[in-house]
Amino acid sequence: MRERKRRHIDVCLDDDVDFQTVTTGLERVRLPYNALTQTSLADVDVETTFLGARLRAPLLIGAMTGGAELSAVVNRNLAAAAQRLGVGMMLGSQRVMLDDPSAAASFDVRDVAPDVLLIGNVGLAQLSMESLPDIVAALDRVGANALAVHTNPLQEAVQHGGDTDFNGSIARLREVAAAIEYPVMLKEVGHGIGASAAAHLTDCPLAAVDVAGAGGTSWARVEQLVRYGHVVHPALAEWGIPTAQALREVRAMLPDVPVVASGGIRSGMDAAKALALGAAAVGVARPLLAPAIESAGAVEDWLERFIFELRVCLHGSGAADLAALQRLGVTDAG
Asked: Distance from the CA of 240 to the CA of which of 25, 75, 150, 320 falls in 20 to 30 A?
């Protein structure tokens, strides 16, 4: 598993792993521009509360890696930047910790990020009441504030030796979410959660849903590159629900559940559109991978540019804060 985690990093750095024909859909909406804005850029407020934590910007560093030696460098640099900027961070899958406790060191970030909203991460395929004590121990070990449960049937189906039995997973999710003392967020990995999936969650005690839509990194593409060295099933690599569509569908189906928009979020403008569509926060992952290998400062630089652009989008649209941005909404590009 450690070798596969390292291959994930290499492929995401060296290969074209984005969707080729599917976009996020955010390019088809416009954030209204107001030339007579009555805001001051210096006073634009992008602070928010998510999963009980105060964030200085509505941003989560998305799940990336864990288990490999390089993963420790990546995670610590991401965490240090998150601490400096006051944004949240999601760890990569901690399944490797459940199988190999020595892998826990690659997830240790609390010494560099004592105040960060830190979200642990396990797979839906591994989730059960029987595994709950080990999952809680893994969350306690890293000092997590919440648990993300990732559901990724397409990625697992393409992955060599992947988990392909999702029978009963909805019932297990409902049971564990009710029993665990951590807030639980359900997420995809980049192929989208839409209305058909969200319809099963109306009575599930979730604290949030991360739609992780199509349009950014295709993990069905990544896994084929890791497994075969090339894409054998191109149609599977292009399968998913675009991020903007997934966001709208989950918001309509679960109006009282905070929704995170991730999957192809590459700019502050993307973030502003997603927030105007009703997202509580946005997630960014792969654009931060190369900076995270370089240094915490490189991650911080990237995030600062992103947050600055988000603040300018609020200012230029006439929104003084995130609530005003959501009231403003978006228009169709036509």
From this structure: 75
